[in-house]
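Appendix B, Record 12. Input sequence as logged:
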Amino acid sequence: WRVRGRTAAVCQRGTPVRCGQAIRLTHLGTGRNLHSHRFTSPLSGNQEVSAFGESGEGDYLDDWTVVCSGTYWVRDDEVRFQHTSTDVFLSVTGEQYGRPIHGQKEVHGMASSSQNNYWKVMEGIFMQPSEAFQTEKYHAEL
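Logged structural output:
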């Protein structure tokens, strides 16, 4: 997945993601965004999460708020993603599909926060923060 600015927003490469910031998660292979709406998921009965849009373009139902403890989403920290329109948390529990994607776990939205909706980056490319951020981070008033 690639982290992008929320729908209709520009996100400059190297800009750190703030806790509380709305983002889109775009699948690298398909160009579709992680999306949710008020439909019931087929296995768990929670809120359905699906893929939507083309080439990273979609709609406001593709926006997720980064929920973390500090000022910024730090590389090795666990975070939660809360859907900006419906307030559910992106979650995965033990429900698995049988056919046509045997063993694939259902990803869905849950109304309350729990251990099932913590996420952590496991691989990918880390972008160094921009120079403007480095200056902001270490600037101190005298």
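DSSP finds one helix and eight strands in the chain.
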